[in-house]
Amino acid sequence: MPRNQRVAGVPADLAVILRDVGTLLLMQAGLLSLTVVVALVFGEFAPALGFLLAGGVAAGVGESWRRLFADAPDPKMKHGMVIAASGWFATAVFGGLAFFLVAWLTPVATMAGYVPAGASWDPVAVAGATSRSSLLYFRNPLHAMFESMSGWTGSGLTMAAHEPSLPRSVQWWRSLIQYVGGVGVIVLTVTILSRPGSGSYALYRSEAREEKIHPSVVSTVRTVWKIFVGYTLLSIGVLFLALWWTQDLPLFETFWQALNHAMTGLSTGGFSVTDDSMETYNSPLVETVLLPMMTLGAIAFPIHYGLLHDREYSELYEDVQTRWLLLLLAAGVVALSAQNLLVELPVEGYRATVPSPVPTLSTAEFDAIRDGTFQWISALTCTGFQSSPIGQWSDGGKLLISVGMTIGGAAGSTVGGIKIIRGYTVSKGIQWQFSRVFLPKSAVVSTELDGRRLDADDMNREFAEAAIVSLLWVILLLGSSLMLVNVTGASYADALFEVASAQGNVGLSAGITGPEMPVVAEVMFLFNMWVGRLEIIPVLVLARSALKGLNP
């Protein structure tokens, strides 16, 4: 486009971005409208008004941008990256507005009614009034923004100290944004941004989901959602039975917890509606049911399509990411369980243990293996469900989990982290570079990567991209960890753990994250979660564009 072209008085590049971000805000307005209905069903009239107002603001801004800049040119790749980064940030802002408005429009006396009878946690005093509802925390705009960013990025770290004290509609909103964000709000909306040349594939690629199931991106996204919804229904049913069998809960409460945990488990988000995540249940059966659910979310969706549609079961071991995911899951379970057996044996008061179903194991040994298995799979799949007090673990256990959160699962799935394919590409690239040293200059060099034969130029490009993203990811991880140590005084193991959880979009916590954490640390985590979800490059493109524009 011409360098000085303008649309509705603004530069054409900015008009392209605002128009498509506006479309994303309209999508969020629809989700907020659905949540208004949920609030009304539960008789939560003040929260319903908060969600209605937030939806109205999102719809007003989104529709204004979409109409005002309707004549903007079609976006190109450079626009796609900026739309991905700014669009995700915008959804977090307007999602946070919902938390904020609901908190301020709900009277403190009404909030007290959301607290379950017999709740044991201490009251929270705000402005001289006493209440125990965690909804009060969202009157702080930074806390509201943090909760929204954590939800949309699938991170799972929370400012809601006691989730059961939230209104049902707020519990639903937290689960819904993780569910949609798990597949990717940008990927979801390519069905809206599907006009020719719209750059929708650029949006799709910014989520590291480059392997398409169908030639059409729109068809791909629809297939992904069909698979996702099917798995969700199955997960709700299985989890409902496990909770019904093991927990003494009313029937509707059993369904409600199964619904929300299936949504956040399959999307590898990790938000919970119980006070201590999965530790509340203290049930090996519930944890066992969740293991395949979390693993499904960490496998690339093209593999699910191959298994379900084409019956290509060989892809489970032929696909390099799936093969390495299963190997890493097994190796990590062994390593973390061994660590727990050697160091983390429960002491009195460590947890409310249950009798071991394996006669040859003591209760303590069973819990060590049980915790090692669940927490490693939760970490590597970037789900963030927590079944034991990790803050009481030794540094060795925390560092092992940090490694899992940093690696993450397969690209093309709902997980965060660096992704297995990047680690594999870097290792293959190092081997390839080393092998070239022993070859004559005239040799024609090629290598195979995940079933593809690459020449020297292609391999250099693949290796460089994977190495750059991985290096930037690790630099940000280490730098943020040092900052967190200085700001909070936490040990480096705890700081590394917490940053890896935020940046890997996981949600496990060693006890640092919470409404009392320093403002500097909370803002840093907001950035870590945003960058981690978008895998750094789109955020860098956005920063460069803000400073210098999109032209070369």
Automatic annotation (TrEMBL):
GO MF term (any one): monoatomic cation transmembrane transporter activity
InterPro entries in the record: Cat_transpt (IPR003445)
A Pfam cross-reference name: TrkH
Transmembrane feature ranges: 21-42, 48-69, 81-105, 176-204, 224-245, 289-308, 324-342, 399-421, 463-485
Domain of life, source organism: Archaea
Subcellular localization, as worded in the UniProt entry: Cell membrane
Alphabetized UniProt keyword annotations: Cell membrane, Ion transport, Membrane, Transmembrane, Transmembrane helix, Transport
Membrane topology, record value: Multi-pass membrane protein
Gene Ontology CC annotation, any one: plasma membrane
Major location (coarse): membrane
Any GO BP annotation: metal ion transport
Family membership: Belongs to the TrkH potassium transport family.
Protein name: Trk system potassium uptake protein TrkH
Organism: Haloarchaeobius iranensis
